[in-house]
Amino acid sequence: MLKDELKQLLVEALRLEDVDPASIADDEPLFGGGLDLDSIDALELVLQLEKTYGIKIGSSEESRAALASINVLAEYIERHRSATSASVKG
Amino acid sequence: MDDALFFEAFDGHTAFGGAETTLDRLLRGESALAATPVVPEGQAEAVPLAAATPLALTTPPRWWPLLSDLVADIPGEGWGTRGRPVFLAGSNFGIDRLYEMGRGSAPDAQADSWATVHGIVRHLRDRFGWGPLIQPVSHACVSAQVALSLAAEWMEAGAAEKALVLSFDYIGPFVSAGFHSLKILNAGFPGPYEDRAIGSIGLGDGAAWAVLSRKPSPWRLVARSSWNEMHHFTANEAGGSGFRAVLEPLSPHLGGRPLWIKGHGTGTLEAGRLEATAVAARFPGAPLVSWKGGLGHTLGSCALVELVLAARGHERGRLPGTVGTRGPTFTPEVATEPFAPPARSDILLLCNAFGGAHGALLLRHEN
């Protein structure tokens, strides 16, 4: 399931050794919340997401919006994966 | 007035050309930024870059003839000797050569001589006969601001009779790729202080010099201030405290004179909003302008390049507006069209950098 996959990726990419992926709520704010992530973490995460899902996040504003929560991020990836796939199919 | 500091002479250039040409083009609302691949290889995204010459990696670097022409016009003798220090500012000394090395280029001693600050200082000394008293200053985008402040401190401490500040930053693939990876350099063109959904900066070539002296001249450095938020490398404190803090030490020097403000205004949304808001709150009604939508961000050189343009424009009595900004702005004080400096006004010059660094200079035309 994409949301579980994203939680795992977040914990691994940011080396959140004390965080159990399952403990991250789908609607929990990823930034400004209990995970205590900052803008460097956001960059690391964006790079990992781009590499893993073949998407392109073009600006800091777009990445801030996409990383609001696991729910929002999953929806963003689904939408952009579809867009990439559609444009490849032509 | 005995302890007053003056700018005896100054000049600079941008991707448009010399200072006067740059002002002409900005006054016409033109931008030197062009959509350019972020790196030369592959299918790179095109981002706004403003280069004075084609972006090629050469030995000597493509910028050396440009810088040499600029430096050749610096008046005075004995630079780099006791009492006449040089403060050399920039944020990316040698980075193009390091990029080439990272791409697997062959060992090349001549090319490597441009890869370090020391090497570049040697080239300047060899070409212009300067002495060894050359102080490199590299503090990201406040480099020239810090160099100006250091030069002023040396003057005030009696360690310098005159001081030369020289700053340069010329863009290249390592720098553009770096900003691109931070997601603040993208395909959109910058609109400084514009309240829109997606922000972007542009990057541009820029170099400038100034001779600081006690000899009275029309341009007086009235006051300077610096502040570091110590908050986070890539983000400002969200309440805008740093943008306010750098302004406060200047208050005793304002003397009730009107102001216009040359802001930092790169085109990023959050910093632009914080800066415009802080300035409008402290100096309501004072015009605020940024020229980075026309020139790109000249990085470690921006404080001095923009000082030169501000002073020359002020002398003309006509200043360019915030080129690239077309929509609603964060505050009504943002000047989007050319304007005349208010009568008997001082110029407040602002500069920011990664790490929450802030700098401010108060400049007065004594006529």
Structure in a nutshell:
The complex is a heterodimer of chains A (90) and B (367). With 90 residues, chain A is an all-alpha fold. Helix content of chain A is 60%, strand content 0%.
Write structural notes for this entry.
The complex is a heterodimer of chains A (90) and B (367). With 90 residues, chain A is mainly α. Chain A has one domain: Orthogonal Bundle (Non-ribosomal Peptide Synthetase Peptidyl Carrier Protein, Chain A), CATH 1.10.1200. Chain A is built from four helices and no strands. In chain A, helix 1 packs across helix 4. By secondary structure, chain B is of the alpha/beta class. In chain B, a hairpin with a 2-residue loop joins strand 1 and strand 2. The two termini of chain B are 15 Å apart. The model of chain B has no long low-confidence stretch (mean pLDDT 95). Chains A and B meet through helix 2 and helix 3 of A and loops of B.
Write the layout of secondary structure elements.
The complex is a heterodimer of chains A (90) and B (367).
Chain A lengths: L1 H12 L25 H15 L6 H7 L3 H20 L1
Helix pairs in contact in A: 1-4
Chain B lengths: L4 E10 L2 E2 H9 L6 E4 L8 E5 L13 H9 L13 E4 L5 H8 L6 H4 L4 H12 L5 E4 L5 H14 L5 E8 L3 H9 L21 E2 L1 E8 L5 E10 L12 H5 L5 H4 L4 E4 L6 H14 L5 E2 L2 H4 L6 H15 L29 E8 L3 E9 L2
Helix pairs in contact in B: 1-12
Please describe the biggest sheet of chain A, giving its number of strands, its sense, and whether it closes into a barrel: none
- The portion of residues assigned to helices of chain B is 25-40%
Sketch the topology of chain B as an H/E string, one letter per element: EEHEEHEHHHEHEHEEEHHEHEHHEE
Number of helices of chain B: 12
Overall pLDDT metric of chain A: 87
What's the helix count of chain A? 4
The residue ranges of chain B in which pLDDT falls below 50 over 5 or more consecutive positions are none
* Unreliably modeled segments of chain A: none
So what's the oligomer here? heterodimer
